[in-house]
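Quick start: load a record and inspect it. Here is ER membrane protein complex subunit 6:
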Amino acid sequence: MPSEKELQISPIVQESVMHNTKTLSNLQTLTASLFGVAAGILGLESYSGFLFYIIFSLLTAALFYTLRVAPTSLPAGKAPLDTSRYFRGPFEFWTGGLFNGLAGFILTWTLFYGLVRA
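Running the structure step on this input writes:
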């Protein structure tokens, strides 16, 4: 939890945090559907399909972090993977998309698997 002095120096604006969260959620939902298309076309089944989804969802979060969060200057004393300044918390940033996009992934995965294998 940041101290009062840190919040005065670099305040956290809730509207910006909400905008960042919405942008990341939209990106993760879109990529989950694209990963479902890829998994269906590749003919992945069972655990290999879900492993494909988990790996590429975490890769998407890492790329988003690298391109959007990391280039900004980090305050002194902050860990390099700390996202609390831009998002509600690290758990939401790194794994929130896994649960939000799962339904879209399964839907497009089964659709394209059925289209390719039919």
